[in-house]
Structures
1.
Amino acid sequence: MLLVCFLSPLFLKAQVVYRGTVSDKESGRPVQAASVFFSNTSYGATSKADGSFRLNLPARGVYDMVVAVVGYETFTLHVTPATPDTIRVQLQPKVKELEAIVLQSFEKDGWKKWGKTFSESFLGRTGNALDCEIVNYQDIRFRYDNAKRELIAIAYKPLIIQNRALGYTIQYQMEQFSFNFRQGYLLYTGYPLFEEMQSSDRQMKKWARKREQAYWGSLMHFMRSLYGKRLLENNFRMYRMSLVPNEEKQRIKPLYKQIQFTPDGKPVTVSYDSVFYYNQILKQSDELEMVEQTALSADSVSYPIDGATIGMKFDEYLKVEYTVKKGAAFAEQMSGTTQWRANPTSNIKLMNNEPLRVNSNGAFYNPINLVTSGYWSQSEKMANMLPFDYQSSYK
């Protein structure tokens, strides 16, 4: 499955204030109440009546600035330390007639039919997901393509997510959501803005502990460890992996088809033991994992690009194991699963062999180029997400 990580800041040094205005591209009029924020952080503002906005940030860095408001196309700007402090934003109005036609093509009672599938795919199935709620779920529309066996979801308003497990209210500007049932391929892209919930000191401490737990072994934790060349110190083991055809399964398929059975299901031409063996092999994947036994260093898959960024490049697959999270207590976090009682293990692959650009805070570009399977394909959902300005006490 593909899990999308969201573009976020890499902080450098001095504090910076970004100012700007938001206007209608066609009329030039100021746009009020537009949400202006840096994706996957807790830094955001709202444009005033004259379209102006102001964002105070702790440091310059690499960001994705997002400007979103109902009735306009989402605006994004990749901000770097060289970007001027004053930013003029022009929003393109959406074509209302086209929007109405698109809405008509979606199912009338979509949430009733697809809500559970969407929630499990988007929020996840972890224990944290049980304490997550999409407040305005009625704003989500669904369409199912029978030929492709693909579910499409769209929302013309930002999703408001209450994550009571980690103590965040998340405003999520969803740009794309699709799940292909035939291929088991999930893709969702969007821009989240995090806001910390406020509560009693006891509850705040509980949220702090839960955030640490979500961070340990996460993709963010891995990318930060890769950048800092601290994979082993932070309990990650990384191995080269390739997929090879399952030749035994291919051999068994025609043999199984030739077996004759009695009306009550007893095998005639082979023994019970052979039938049992055949069934076990046929349950296997069409491809088998071939994993090298020597753990890789960070330098073997990364290289410096500049003072703030490294590149990540590898062939075929990497198998990544986190050696700390194990035992029944952790398995309970993965609601409905038991396979993570051992060390959580994930496979990662680069789409089209395109390298990633990784920053010290764990953000990487382009996130759509990284495909995950295994543990991260289940754990890296919105219910476990942390903003990239999150600072862990875990070293």
2.
Amino acid sequence: MRIDRIIAQRGEYSRKIAMKMVRRGRVEVEGVSCTDPKSHFPENAHVCIDGYELPQRVRVYVYHKPPGVLSTSFDSMGRPCVGDLLPIHHHLVGRLDMETRGLLLLSMDGHLTQALLHPKREVEREYCAWVEGDPDIDLIETLRNGVETSLGLAKAKVLSIEGNCVRLVVTEGRNRIVRRMLHNAGHSVLDLMRVRFGPIELGDIEEGMMRAITATQEDILNAFIHGLRAVKQPISKKEK
């Protein structure tokens, strides 16, 4: 990637200002002076401006959303929302309803966000749902075949049932779809937590805390997105 673009993406500098700083000899890359804005380096290269290290760009954060927090950037009624903590240049990758807790991804990459959220990609979202009643093996078949909701037919893959906790996977992000399908299957949700989105897991992040994804997670996510884009989607008659 061009050095002027690396600088612009990491900090508050515009591409134009970054080019001027490079030409004036204010930039070092891996300890060596760089005066050509067109020079290419790895995106994670060690960059200094006037001797001060330019922090690495954090493309994606994982946030453990608590219940009672809105998945919006702003709320006119003054209720707590994720936007109160949103890092500069970042946006939400999908949403969780107000009372659902767990994993939310915050991204500054629009292409990544689009790839994860596009319905045709069917990216997995994994949840733990604590429900009313005594869920049993019949629920596995019911959710696999699909449950009618006010938003249409909804399906899920049940990974496990332990007591009243159902661990399940859906491949869509329609509003409150997990709550709707479980309620209509006879097991209203008491508590709901998302623990995974695509290849990224919530892990041990405490409720209300945010963490940049690790270098390993970044590599896994990049490979995952590349795999999604490599799958050719059928073109509908309307798109022809």
3.
Amino acid sequence: EDQKQLNNYLLILNTITKEKIRNKILQENLEQLLTNKENQNITTLKLNNYKLAKIPETIEQLKNLKYLDLGSNQITTIPDSITQLKNLQELYLYNNQLTQIPETIEQLKNLKYLDLGSNQITTLPDWLEKMKRKGIKINY
């Protein structure tokens, strides 16, 4: 019985350690992906369900990005550098840990769809209504 509990504990510990290592590798690889000049013509980036805690500032280098899915992660804030994604049309940030919507999103002039559902946003900024009147579909 004690051996079984010990084995279970070691299995859980091993899983947690692997998860932390995986997340660190993923974050480092993501930084490399975003800064690699060969990837600057990417138009679609799907990083949903990767347990990302933050969006790297270097996301701004993907100038041609039109579709960005960062849903089902653990993101708490959106970096100001996201305003550099001038061609972005669809932004998915559903099921994260966001508590507010930064005004920087208003600067994404080509945005047609914004998904902020299943976050912890308690107040909606006034400019969000303006965006909706322009025909931008917003889920929150």
4.
Amino acid sequence: MDQGSRPKRLAVSFAQRRRSGRAPPAPPPLLGARSHAGPADFAESWGSLRALRRAKSPLALAQRRIPMAAPDLLKAARSLRETIEAEADRVEETLNMTAPIVEGLVDSGLFRLLMPEALGGFESDPSTIIEVCEEISFADGSVGWSYAQNTSCMAYLAYMDPELVEPFARSRAGAGMFAPLSVVIREEGGYRVSGKHQFATGSPHADFIGGAGMELVDGESVMGPNGLPSILAYIVPMEKAVMKGNWDVMGLCGTASFDYEIPEQFVEAGLTHSIFETHPRSGGALYGLGPVPLGTISSCGWAIGVAKRALHEIVDIVTTQARTRMGSDPLKEQQVFQRDLALHTQALNSVRLLAHETYGSAVDAIARGESPETLEQIRRESKAAASYIVQVSREATTFAFQASGSHGLRNPNRLQRCFRDMYVGASHIVFDERNFVESVKERLGIVPLPF
């Protein structure tokens, strides 16, 4: 399936926002290496991005004219491939996106991919989101993962007071981890928050960061309408958070997913939202998915992009380097390898279609005003689809790495990086296999868990 092609059903559903896809240009030669960064490297990279932040401040961005209609965002993403690949080694060394990549994403408007149109974003349809994230992730897994999380954080502004989030909407990007690890105490007009979190992915180039915690009144948890404790997400300016700079991991090394702390401070109620929220205050049906399912759209694009790169790399290895063993035919001529390559290619193409269909159908159902019960089941099925998409992507990446033999062990090596990135990203809780279980309980007469 051509990377730019799309399911016909979705072309009808999003006719006002679609444009015909085009096959991407051939990827550049094999590049990439793995190394570890020390405190000096971290400080140097952080300083360069802080300087870029000042140059690209919210005020400066506000002075730019935001176009009335979205440009060809997929074309913009493809135009950054050469830059991302050229910077990939440095991304891994310094633990985060380099300044040329960040500047390219800012200037192209791509950080606004998921942000509501009413707030100055593009409010893209699911297929555009998937394809853009796939394209950026094909270029580099760490950059793609950071980008996916940054854009999701911008999307969550949809659930907050439009007037209060206006300064945040002018930011380059947002970051944050929204597991309930903060203390969120209700006060008049808002909340007293504090907490220690992990995984501040993409934080060096973000202008705000978020956290989440159980809502407390007089030391007691507030119960939400779904029968679960109320869990509120919130955002604060980046300068009101303390970054730890401690990211030394196996894969996704260049995502700057540092630990961070939110010191005790007051946050207005309009800068919070329930993590179970499905009624946006800005934007349309896309945001009716709710924060968690909404965030998985970009992550599915990431998984597909990394897996496609892994398959591309193994084909490059077996066709340009004599991958064989003494007494055996070259690997590319062995039918078992040919069959497995075809199977993983078709499986990946299939889950790519699944991603487009699942999220496109879900947004259509929300727009039609289906019953709350129907929409809850659709959300459960979208989570299961995300888990399956990542499972198939991981299997394709594993096949490519195992087939590479010793070639996959040596640096510089993009395939090795795909393998490491995939196994780290696929372990994210949003892809938990519990999603499969919850998606079928209703059919079996069992009450699904509410979250």
